[in-house]
Amino acid sequence: MVIENYVLMAHVNLNKVMGINGRMGTLMDNDFNAEHGTQGKSNFDELTKDIMSYLRANPEDQYIHLNMINGKTERADTPPPRNAPPKPDAVRQFTPQDVKTYLDKHVVKQDDAKKSLAIAICEHINHVMQSENDNSPYVKQNVLLIGPTGVGKTFLVKLIAEFIGVPFVKSDATKFTETGYQGGDVEDLVRQLAQKAGDDVSLAEKGIIFLDEIDKISGSQDRRQKDVSGLGVQRNLLKIMEETEVQLRPAWDMQAQMKMMMEFGRKKDAPETINTKNILFIMSGAFVGLDEIIRQRVEGSSMGFDRNQDKKSNDDLMVEVCTNDLISFGLEHEFVGRLPVRTSCKELNAEDLYHVLVDSESSLLYQTKRYFKNYGIKVAFTEDVLRELSRRAYEEKTGARGLGTVFETTFRDYKFELPSSSVKRFVVEMPMLSKGRAALDSLLAYPEEAHNHYDATLNSRMENLFSTEIVDQMIDTKPRWAN
Q: Which CATH architecture has domain 96-344?
């Protein structure tokens, strides 16, 4: 009997179930049990006994059907329908320039990071495609992505996941703890790959795992207590980053426990596992304070006659990061060694944020226009407005995320009131930013003037406007302002 294919199907009239009592879910509606003959099968233990008895009597069956309406355990010829995740597209070959060209459409700047990621991804895909027929040595190009918040680290990897045809899993390093302690287990990342691959183990073994906030699991400086969420997690990651076998069903999984019960006293099948040899790991983090560690090494003492007058910027320092710098930050030596590709994302200034608005296909400006368009409202922004919004976003010191903060606070009242008004066209100009609520009240009071001003401005200053007409023309293609 193929135990892996064993499925329990329970049909319960939920409208008749009055409540649940105890951990195993005892049904409390005695009238319902008496009516349908389900006495004696009202808790999990007795249901399990019933299943065991049936399996011993019918070892050739692959699927069973436990009908809780008439209390009978019956044979089922086919398994029930499953909502398995769709399998990714077939793995396809592409060049590093193909990957970077795609990333350039959405992410401003970060050329070094784009190139490093593109090369690592293509090398991984090429190895995956050739590994079935070629056993030549291969060193995985696991990637460490360093950079401040809001510069596009996570977004870059997310875009790559959309572009390639292998399963991809993203997670946050802070939710994991050392094995045996409360918290997530790093092996769950590998199991999630199998789910993304539609339970296709061979495809999951070629996937990519992205672990964000990796700097948050740096080792604790306090050696008096066990560090289960820092060094402990790093050590657990070591084995899956190199090569190990991860059980597809952990010991605590219900199906794994049922299988163990079925195999009691018989020859046990080998557990199904996932090999991590060909799984690529990409890790990222802000690494706040790493720049000072690098500066101390590169520029030396900051006091006396050794003081270096020409200090390098943080972006220039991050390019010179080495293994010892990361170890000083709190990463294990063996952990750093398994991340051979190290690249950094540069901080975004106000000019960069302006280009994020007008050049990126994922622009927040595009999203804002789509919001108003859904209510039949056309809106245009002048260039000086977009530059002012970019300047305000830069002052937030949260990178591109600052654009979201500025747009939300600036246009909150407009998004709330205009959909219910008679305003159908308007232009966002500098006076609207400076006047605040008074500008919105004037717009609501004189909608026809706003319409006329929109038409006149659009005709006379088309080259300096970013309007809904442009959005309408490019609704399913690249926006005009990205040309």
A: 3-Layer(aba) Sandwich (3.40)
